[in-house]
Design brief:
mainly alpha; 3-stranded antiparallel β-sheet; 58% helix; 7% strand; 7 helices; single chain
Amino acid sequence: MTQSTPDAWAGPVATGEEATVPLPAAAGGGPVSHAIFRLARLHRMFAGQLLRRIGLHPGQELVMMHLWELGAQRQADLVRLMDSDAATMTRTVRRLEQAGFVRRRPSPTDKRASLIEPTVASHALRRQVEQIWTQLEDISTAGMTDDERTVALRTLERLEQNLVQAAAQPADADEEG
């Protein structure tokens, strides 16, 4: 493990293919996890900049994608689809509703539930969201060959699969090993 020095924290590194943030010594046992953290943070930040131009925040476009594709959904179904929690989805739907991109209507089959549906105004956003996602993909994978993109996607899917499996294990299973 390398020593962390005050000079290492003087600012971001921006040379060649080096990381933009130095690996702190305490994270030395998890360089892949540190890289995932940095990548996710930068990706979300950049997505936020692009989405802000059309009045959305990161995550809201994913809810809209599901609604555009599947039509009206119960909020509980959106929570499941997005692997979210009820409080986050409530805030997201409320903000989308205030922006005029979704509306609630009573469920015809369940009097206790309401359906969240995209508005006509949101359909005008769809093409812009698709363009933003294409732009984000192009920026994120710039300079990569098609084969490298395929390998990167498979690697990310494998990392996700590993975490999903770990999350599904009982909490005390980690302590037995």
